[in-house]
Amino acid sequence: MGKVRDKVVLITGAGRGIGAGTARELAKNGAKLVLIDLDGGPLRELANELGEKIALPVVADVCDLEAMQTAVDAGVAKFGGIDYVLANAGIASYGSVLNVDPATFKRVIDINILGVFYTVRAALPSVIERKGYILVVSSLAAYAPAPGLAAYNASKAGVEHFANALRLEVAHLGVDVGSAHMSWIDTPLVQDAKKDLASFGEMMASLPGPLRKTSKLEVCVDAFVKGLADRKRRVNVPGWVGPIGWFKAVVTSAVGDRSTLKQAPALVAKMDAEIAKLGRSTSARNVALEDVAVQPK
Fold first, then answer.
1. What's the CATH code of the domain at 113?
2. Among 95, 237, 257, 282, which residue's beta carbon has the most beta carbons within 10 A?
3. Any idea which residues carry the catalytic annotation?
4. Predicted confidence (pLDDT) per residue in 17-52, tens digit
5. pTM for this one?
């Protein structure tokens, strides 16, 4: 992956999961990294592992434009500019539209959509200057929605179209824009949902064929690094996700809904009952980070 050598890559949601794995692989291939996360502990551990000549950690909330601008400015000051952006930070909520906690629903939209906008807005001048590349992390959920995950579905569809619009705006400036679409990946997001909700695992098990399978983190990391290096328009993980995007109109049609509609009543009712017992509509880790985000600056 010589194409990323000496490139400066800004990664949000860098403390764990896909962000951290991608950071490690990019570092092996000679990239410099601006690592952003609200969870300071694992972020600093990762930066210490990679070394200060390679990685700059910045604790920031992607929902705070001023904080994101400060993070970008720090990266530019240290490394000279930003070549690539991986807008990866994202969370999910649990529960039906009727029963999900409204504040949690809003937090998902804020992080997954507004956070992408703030990340791109802050970094874009430097990316334009260096004729770089932006990879916005969407999901298979942008193509094939799941009941009980409305905020996540909506946000990932939103950022896909954000990436599509951004591409039209900056292509003439030498900047490429891609979107990443993953099925289930073995990340903290999926692990936490499985741990919290038996209904989540049942929902996954009810899906047809490959849709029920969880891919290893390494598979996603390899695809992301290649996507960044090759400045891809679409990064699909696994590869079969791509054709689902081509047939999105069929997937979301009355015909496509049939299988899910058979399972949804029981699964959604069970999920809502489990959430009521939990007393929260997202993972415990996300709740703790929400508390961090609202602390006085």
1. 3.40.50.720
2. 282
3. 152
4. 999 999 999 999 999 999 999 999 999 999 999 999
5. 0.95
